[in-house]
Design a protein that fits this description.
single chain, alpha+beta, two-stranded antiparallel ribbon, RAI1-like domain-containing protein
Length: 79
């Protein structure tokens, strides 16, 4: 499902000029309250080196920009 968003930066500041950003995002679904839901999946190699830190930051930024408060994560570890 696609969605369009507008964000203003900086938020709640009168001293700096406001910049508005218009962007689109693909959303995974809606919860029972109509809020956007994000589901992330990963196949192995997630906890090797700094890979998880970089991936988690990317996921956080993507979700924060579209107003998602939490996300569900699934990791398939092949044994």
């Amino acid at each position: 499902m696609g969605a369009f968003f507008v964000a203003s930066f900086p938020e709640n500041s009168e001293k700096e000029p406001e910049v508005k950003v218009f962007y689109s995002a693909e959303m995974d679904g809606l919860d029972k309250d109509g809020k956007h839901v994000e589901v992330k999946t990963q196949f192995k190699n997630l906890f090797i080196g700094r890979f998880f830190e970089k991936k988690a930051m990317k996921w956080y930024i993507q979700s924060k920009l579209v107003g998602i408060d939490g996300m569900t994560f699934f990791c398939l570890l092949k044994t």
